[in-house]
Design brief:
Helix 10 packs across helix 12, helix 11 packs antiparallel against helix 12 and helix 11 crosses helix 13. Strand 2 and strand 3 form a beta hairpin. The protein folds into 2 domains: 61 residues; 198 residues, Ribonuclease H-like superfamily/Ribonuclease H (Nucleotidyltransferase, domain 5, 2-Layer Sandwich). It has 13 helices and 5 strands. It is α/β, with parallel strands linked by helices and 296 residues long.
Amino acid sequence: MLSRTYCHIPGIGEKTERRIWNEGVRDWSDALSDPLFFFLLPGYVRSLATSFLERSIECLEREDIRFFDDKLSYSHRWRLFPAFRHRAVFLDIETTGLNTPHDHITMITLFDGKRSKTYIHGINLSEFVDDVMQYPFIVTFNGMCFDIPIIERYFNIHLPQVHLDLRYVMKSLGYRGGLKACEKAMGIDRGDLTGVDGFTAVLLWRKYREGCVEALESLIAYNVEDTVNLEKLMVFAYNQKVEQLSFPSLTLPLPRKRVLLPYSINRDVLREVLFERIHHFGGRKTKWWPDVAESS
């Protein structure tokens, strides 16, 4: 999709881009060899179009994602995915809450499409920064408002990577709600994790801190599931987008379910935590976990 994109060229908008496609100039190679391409452009754009396309081809070959991110509007950033999928990482965090000065990250999972790694507070969380810096492209759900600001504040760093927040991509496709709502719309079944959300994750962490190791394993399984499902959501959203643009041949196969870690849900522990949530909180979030747009 990226090599068929023209709206990153200054002076070319979506209407002109679609007119170019409709005239059969489907990608950059066609554009450079077909004089019709230049006649479809506004006059002031023609003089720079050739050099810009040549630079685009060069930057794509050397995998310079920053060049395209700087030129594309945020609403078109999803087009980067297939070209840079092999250098992307999916990210999701869990925390102890949101409001008090003592709240902190409990765990972070990174998933590169093949392998996942979970970083846990008090165990290996310090390894996260070096590892995440290996990826130039981060994909989250609600990461712009939640995951990324919290990470940057917690570690006192700036994450320089290109960041795609699927919450806004899904919203542009007409899907509302948090990650679980989008998964439900896709038909994803979470099995034993059905009904577990970010607030339940807070309670699982509390139970682990009280000495229940099984609660930690259940929390890891939940966090990994959140992160792995981001890839499915990304592919789903990308396919919807290319179909809207009349490029059905560019759709990608949905990822298959993978068993990534030897951690599993402990049903008894999860049942206890869900009972505690209902018994003590009535299923409602407390003042230290307000009803914000769900990140996970």
